[in-house]
TrEMBL record:
It comes from Candidatus Segetimicrobium genomatis. CDD domains: ABC_TM1139_LivF_branched (cd03224). GO terms for molecular function: ATP binding; ATP hydrolysis activity; branched-chain amino acid transmembrane transporter activity. PANTHER family: HIGH-AFFINITY BRANCHED-CHAIN AMINO ACID TRANSPORT ATP-BINDING PROTEIN LIVF. This is ABC transporter ATP-binding protein.
């Protein structure tokens, strides 16, 4: 797949696949095209060449709001909660595309699954720490019942203890049979948790393999892990 902005091509011949219940990580330097790739998958950008499929059906050119309805969720960089609403109300926003009658049951189950949110369910989301807001965003995704979750720098700016908690939630998402595609600057953490990983440099995939293998890859160690 190729993609970019106007005549400027940023993604050049990237080929990826995601399986249900799998975490795939993408690492690479700033400006490599990682966020552009996520934006293309979610429909903010249209591929200039190549194909994009979900369950065998082409989704190239599908708009973002339609991507959500087709089962793709996108957790962007930064914090995307509504600070003036309660934690519970923020969670309920994750179910806005659903028309079934199981939302309340799923919400209660979700709060039981994440005690940190249960304890603050009536509080405004604006009082949460950065890590707690990220957990809220990820938990909210589960109410969408997605097939694919795209994560852009989910641990950016978080304290080490919160990074572990965030990845606990990522594994909960994966455990629900969801394919997770995560872009990370926290390379060691990403590779440690990923089933598969790839390195994007200048818009192309330079290395790819199992997460554990990439941790031991000589070039990956030298450039991204400090030797």
């Amino acid at each position: 797949m190729h993609s970019g902005y106007g005549t400027r091509e940023v993604i050049r011949g990237v080929s990826l696949s995601l399986g249900a219940g799998e975490i795939v990580a993408m690492i690479g330097p700033n400006g490599a095209g990682k966020s552009t790739l996520l934006r293309t998958i979610f429909g903010f950008l249209r591929p200039t060449r190549g194909t994009l499929h979900l369950d065998g059906e082409s989704i190239a050119g599908v708009r973002p709001h339609q991507m959500v309805r087709r089962g793709i969720a996108y957790v962007m960089q930064g914090h995307n909660v509504l600070p003036g609403l309660s934690v519970e109300d923020n969670l309920q926003l994750g179910a806005y595309v659903r028309v079934d009658r199981q939302v309340r049951t799923d919400l209660d189950r979700l709060l039981e699954q994440f005690p940190i949110l249960q304890a603050r369910r009536r509080q405004k989301a604006g009082v949460l720490s950065g890590g707690e807001r990220r957990i809220l965003e990820l938990a909210r995704v589960l109410l969408q019942r997605p097939k694919v979750v795209l994560l852009d720098e989910p641990t950016l700016g978080l304290a080490p203890r919160m990074i572990d908690q965030v990845y606990d939630v990522v594994h909960s998402v994966k455990g629900a049979g969801v394919a997770v595609f995560v872009v990370e600057q926290n390379v060691r953490t990403a590779l440690r948790h990923a089933h598969r990983a790839c390195v994007l440099e200048q818009g192309t995939v330079r290395f790819e393999g199992r997460g554990e293998e990439m941790l031991q890859h000589p070039e990956v160690k030298r450039v991204y892990l400090g030797g």
